[in-house]
């Protein structure tokens, strides 16, 4: 279910994708930045322009964490798990970036290999 539909299989079932984006990134992509309401692939340029814009020298820790998550989403969509257009990333990867300590313990190499075989 997670892979095919982008649905979470754990955690709070009441959290929407919009709430997830707002909580983790501080902003929700608009309809013009998404492929559709149901697929939730977001343009890499949206992350670059909106989340990873100029990082202020006196940025708060929260701002730095959001910047980092946006940057990682660009790496995921552009290098690790590119789609056929090479210009979008599925929002399904975002929950894995909620806790960056736990994220670092995931086996990303096995997931990349499975993605390549797909």
From TrEMBL:
<protein>
    <recommendedName>
        <fullName>Aminotransferase-like plant mobile domain-containing protein</fullName>
    </recommendedName>
</protein>
<feature type="domain" description="Aminotransferase-like plant mobile">
    <location>
        <begin position="5"/>
        <end position="118"/>
    </location>
</feature>
<dbReference type="Pfam" id="PF10536">
    <property type="entry name" value="PMD"/>
</dbReference>
<dbReference type="InterPro" id="IPR019557">
    <property type="entry name" value="AminoTfrase-like_pln_mobile"/>
</dbReference>
<dbReference type="InterPro" id="IPR044824">
    <property type="entry name" value="MAIN-like"/>
</dbReference>
<dbReference type="GO" id="GO:0010073">
    <property type="term" value="P:meristem maintenance"/>
</dbReference>
């Amino acid at each position: 279910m997670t892979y095919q539909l982008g649905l979470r299989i754990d955690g709070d079932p009441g959290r929407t994708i919009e709430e997830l984006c707002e909580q983790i990134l501080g902003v929700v992509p608009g309809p013009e930045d998404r492929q559709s309401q149901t697929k939730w692939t977001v343009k890499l340029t949206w992350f670059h322009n909106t989340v990873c814009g100029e990082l202020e020298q006196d940025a708060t820790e929260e701002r730095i964490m959001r910047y980092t998550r946006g940057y990682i989403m660009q790496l995921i969509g552009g290098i690790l798990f590119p789609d056929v257009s090479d210009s979008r990333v599925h929002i399904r990867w975002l929950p894995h970036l909620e806790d960056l300590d736990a994220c670092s313990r995931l086996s990303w190499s096995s997931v990349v290999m499975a993605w390549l075989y797909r």
